[in-house]
Amino acid sequence: MQNVIRFGDNLPILQAMPPESAGLIYIDPPFNTKKVQSRTQIRTMRSENGDRTGFQGQRYATEKVGSKAFADDFDDYLGFLRPRLLEAHRILAQHGTLYLHLDYREVHYAKILLDEIFGRECFLNEVIWAYDYGGRPKNRWPPKHDNILVFVKDPEHYTFNYEEIERIPYMAPGLVGPEKAARGKTPTDTWWHTIVPTNGKEKTGYPTQKPLGILKRIAEASSRPNDVVLDFFAGSGTTGEACRLLGRRFVLIDNNPEALQVMARRFDGVPDIEWIGFDPGPFQNASLTRQASLLLGA
Ligand SMILES: C[S@@+](CC[C@H](N)C(=O)[O-])C[C@H]1O[C@@H](n2cnc3c(N)ncnc32)[C@H](O)[C@@H]1O
C-alpha cells in the first residue's frame, strides 16, 4: 500500500477502513478552545515608510498574504470524539498504539472515555509536552503544556522500540561520567520541546501545527517499519512528514481544504502518495512553474 492523503470528514472514512490495519494512530483533534484557530501569513519588504524596524534599523513594510483557519468550538465534544475513538480502537492492529494529543481543557474527560473504550489496563502513559512560548497571564500559572494520552490495544504485546528512541542530553552531564554523557539519556514522560519556530524552515503557516520532533519521537518508539501510521486530524501533515523521514507508510485525513493545500505544498515532489478527494496539482511547484511559463508565453 502506498501513502494516502484524503479530504473529508474522518468518521465515514474511518468506518470504511479495515479492522486492525494501522500499527500506530496519532491524533491531534481540535482542543475545544471555543475559538477559531487561525494563523495569518505576512510578507515583509524593505520600505522607508515601513511599519516595522528590523536588523540595523532598516524599515520594513508588512503585507498580509493569506490566512488559514479551522473552527474549534464544540457543544458536545465527547459526543464528537467518541464514535471516532471507537473506530480508532477497531482499526488499531493488535500490537498497535493510540496517541491522543489534547490539552488541559478536555484531557481528563478523554482519559475516562478511553478507559471505557480500551480498558484501564491498556493505558500506557500520559506524556506531557512542555514548552515555553506565548503570553503569561498574571492571574494564574501560565498553562505551558499539552497532554498526550497513550493507550495500547494489547498491554501484553505492543510495540515500544526503546533502543530506537533518540537520546537527549543529560541536564547535569558532569554527574554521570563521560561515556553516559556522550550517549545521552532516553526521554521520560515529560518532553521539553520548543514549539514550531515561527520563522524556521519547518513552519507551514497552518494553525496549531505540531513540531516534527514530537511526531518523530512517537513514530520511532511506537511503530514498526511496515506499519501504517494513521492521523485522521492531519492538519499540516506533520505525522506524514515524520513517517516519510522514518520510512513508515501513512494515511492522513482532514476535512479542511486549507489543510490539504498546505499538505500539497509540504509533500510536493514526494512520490507514492495517493490523493483522494483533492487535487494537489494546482498548489505544487511543477504546476506553478507551468502556469508561470504559460503567462510568460514560454
Ligand atoms: C489541531 S489541528 C491538527 C494539527 C496537526 N497535528 C499539525 O501538526 O498540523 C486539527 C485538525 O483537525 C481537522 N478536523 C476537525 N474536524 C475534523 C473532521 N471531522 N474530520 C477531519 N478532520 C477534522 C481540522 O481541520 C484541523 O486541521
Helices and strands, with pairings:
Elements: E1 3-7, H1 10-15, E2 22-27, E3 35-46, E4 52-53, E5 59-72, H2 77-91, E6 92-102, H3 107-118, E7 123-130, E8 145-152, H4 178-183, E9 190-192, H5 212-222, E10 228-231, H6 238-246, E11 249-254, H7 257-266, E12 273-276, H8 285-295
Parallel strand pairs: 1-11, 1-12, 2-6, 2-10, 7-9, 10-11
Antiparallel strand pairs: 3-5, 4-5, 6-8, 7-8
Bound molecules: S-adenosylmethionine.
The site of S-adenosylmethionine (SAM) has 19 residues, from strand 11.
Structure description:
The protein has 298 residues and is an alpha/beta fold. The chain has a single domain, classed as 3-Layer(aba) Sandwich (Rossmann fold). Helices cover 27% and strands 28% of the residues. It contains eight helices and twelve strands. The strands form two sheets. It has a nine-stranded mixed beta sheet with strand order 9-7-8-6-2-10-11-1-12. Strands 3-5-4 form a three-stranded antiparallel beta sheet, with no helix packed on it. Strand 4 and strand 5 form a beta hairpin. The protein is globular. The relative contact order is 0.19. The structure holds S-adenosylmethionine. Residues 9-10, 28-30, 70, 206, 208-210, 233, 235-236, 238, 253-256, 259 line the site of S-adenosylmethionine.
